[in-house]
Amino acid sequence: MKPEAGLRFKTYLLLFLMVVFGPLGDVLLSKGMKRIGTLTSWGPLDLLRFFENTFTSVVVWFGIGSLLSFFIAYILVLSWADYSYVQPASSAAYGVVALLGYLILRETVTPMRWAGILIICLGVFIVGHTLPRTTEP
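^ thats the sequence. predicted structure below, dont judge the formating
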C-alpha cells in the first residue's frame, strides 16, 4: 500500500470514529441528563444529590466514554491531517446528530433541517475528495 493510501485510510477511519462517537456521546449525555431531571434549587444538598445522580448514571458514563473516544480520534487525526480538512469533513456528524436525535431521543426533525443537513453533507463530500494534508510534515 502506498504511504498516501495508508494516510487516507487512517484519516477516513478516524474521521468515521469522530462522526460516530461525538454525536453518540452527546445524545447519551442528553438522554442521561433528561432521566436525572432539572436542577431546581442551588442549595448544597440539592447540588450534592444532583451530582451524585449524574455521576452514578450509566448512560452519562457511556456518553463521557464516547466523547473521550471522539476526542482521542480528533487529536490523532489532527496530528497528520490539515485542520482545514478535518473540521469540515467531521461535519458529517450533523447528519448523525439529527438521526440519533430522531431515533433515540424521539425528537422531531423538520424537513427544513433535513435539507440543511443534506447541504452540509454535500460540502463534506466535496471536502472529502481533497488531500488530507497540503503542508509538509
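Residues 3-36 form the longest helix (34 residues).
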